[in-house]
Design a protein that fits this description.
Strand order of the largest sheet: 3-2-1-4-5-7-11
CATH topology: Rossmann fold
Strand content: 15-25%
Oligomer: single chain
Number of strands: 13
Shape: globular
Structural class: alpha/beta
CATH architecture: 3-Layer(aba) Sandwich
Length: 300
């Protein structure tokens, strides 16, 4: 397939591009700057992609969006987090509307923040959305992507959990206190953490791309979520460091504000649709995922 990826140089987009190329697909990534590379498509959302541009693609994978973390959620950042997702997705769908032929599939990023806090309850794709800020972002984001269904385009909504790899995402920041023997759980550590190794995010996206039966929301999380306490213990073991110093919840909230409150809650999310569709996870246990990430790098 000819595939267009927004956010194609990012934490997930870059390894996804490499994997798709290795599998025989042709990958183009969007760029805001003029480029001489034939594998780049110059695009400045909210401008539309010309019909003769978008019609060249069999599939579009939308990964663009302002990072949720780090930093406090000021009103300015909230607006940027929301608008960066809505404007890009809307422009993609509107570009599809005026193109002929249209892409066959749109895979659009979302997040398990859609569900909000659920304590110990198991969460699947059928769980209704919450009403906090992250949930409102995800609902608005997904609403724009689903408009492509009106055009006959298959839409997959990739609700991603905490993505683990050493070169990006939240893990490098989580590692810092452990490096100084100060690692441990956040608060009482009982909140659930729905994680996934980056290899499996790439794998699920590729699986959804190549299997026409997959559509709608798909939880991109590992089958075995863990509590924050168990994750901290596994991270400490992978780094050959103790996990004993709890970070008081009030400090997290004081430092990060609304984002800190999110970190003090959690979701026990299951990838029900991915499993039912037949996807085989590379990493089902967090200890194995962390061991693979830090193999040969943990300090003795």
């Amino acid at each position: 397939m000819n595939i267009l990826i927004t956010g194609g140089t990012g934490f997930i987009g870059a390894p996804l591009s490499r994997e798709l190329i290795k599998s025989g697909h042709t990958v183009f990534i969007t760029t805001r700057r003029l480029s001489g590379s034939k594998e780049k498509l110059t695009w400045n959302p909210p401008d539309l992609i010309p019909p003769d541009g978008i019609s060249n693609f069999d599939a579009v994978i939308n990964l663009a969006g302002e990072p949720i973390a780090p930093g406090r959620w000021t009103n300015k950042r909230k607006k940027l987090i929301m608008s960066s997702r809505i404007n890009t997705t809307d422009a993609l769908v509107q570009s599809m509307r005026i193109s002929n032929p249209k892409p066959k599939v749109l895979i659009s990023a979302s997040a398990i923040g859609y569900y909000g806090a659920h304590g110990d309850e198991f969460v699947t794709e059928d769980t209704p959305p919450s009403s906090d800020f992250l949930a409102e972002v995800c609902k608005a984001w997904e609403k724009e992507a689903l408009k492509a269904e009106e055009l006959g385009v298959r839409v997959v909504l990739m609700r991603t959990g905490g993505v683990l790899e050493s070169d990006g995402g939240a893990l490098p920041q989580m590692m810092i206190p452990f490096r100084f023997f100060l690692g441990g759980p956040i608060g009482n550590g009982k909140q659930w953490f729905s994680w996934i190794h980056r290899d499996d995010v790439v794998g699920i996206i590729k699986y959804a791309l190549e299997n026409e039966t997959v559509s709608g929301p798909v939880n991109a999380t590992a089958p075995a979520p863990v509590t924050n306490m168990d994750f901290s213990a596994a991270l400490g073991k992978a780094l050959n460091r103790p996990s004993w110093l709890s970070v008081p919840g009030f400090i997290v909230k004081l430092t990060l504000g609304e984002l800190g409150s999110v970190l003090m809650t959690g979701q026990r999310v299951l990838p029900e649709k991915a499993l039912n569709a037949g996807y085989q996870f590379k990493y089902t246990e967090v200890k194995d995922a962390l061991k693979a990430i830090f193999r040969g790098t943990a300090q003795k």
